[in-house]
Amino acid sequence: MSRTERATAAGSAGERRARTDYTGGVYGSMLATSVIVGAGTLGSFPRAELVALLVLTGVVFWLAHVHAQVFGARLTRRTPDRRVLLHVCRDEWPIVQAALPPAAAVAVSPLLGLDVEGALWFALSVAVAGQVGWSAAAARRAGASWGLVGVTAVVNLVLGLLILSFKLFLKH
């Protein structure tokens, strides 16, 4: 297979992935949930600090994934060019996108009259809902049946609730 044919095949696979793979969104939501649980066990903190921690952690993990993908392309003897880099950046962007709704939940929590503990639970709920939503969207866009969409949503809900249980366990 020539370099052009490999690039075309990789582009087609990448386009299919961009249309159907929200793995980064599921991963980013779980990451956000973990950040909130970890921050919540440390006691009281300014909300702006948690918003920044959520967004910055999402960005750092996004950069790490981009680096790993580009480095992996280099290891397979494909020369990563600007097009490949931009494609990988776009493919991994759901990691950052998934951190934004929980961060927004923390930011607006004072407007809802929530104290710090309420803000944490609100952000955790948003993160878990995001995780379930990303997984269901991924399954549906990949052509899964509604039954399989339901299964993936339930599995991701259970995983999210497992992380939430860590918050309860670590607090007591």
Q: What's the short version?
A:
With 172 residues, this protein is mostly helical. The protein has helices spanning 3-20, 23-40, 47-75, 82-92, 94-108, 116-141, 146-171.
Number of helices: 7
**Structural class by sheet pairing and helices:** mainly alpha
- Main pleated sheet: none
Quaternary class:
single chain
Topology:
Layout (H helix, E strand, L loop, with lengths): L2 H18 L2 H18 L6 H29 L6 H11 L1 H15 L7 H26 L4 H26 L1
Helix pairs in contact: 2-3, 2-5, 2-6, 2-7, 3-4, 3-5, 5-6, 6-7
Write up this protein.
The protein contains seven helices and no strands. The protein has 172 residues and is mainly α. Helix 2 packs antiparallel against helix 6 and helix 3 crosses helix 4. The longest helix has 29 residues, at 47-75. The chain is globular, with a radius of gyration of 18 Å. Mean pLDDT is 84; it is low at 1-10 and 16-20.
Q: Characteristics of this structure?
A:
172 residues, mainly alpha, disordered N terminus
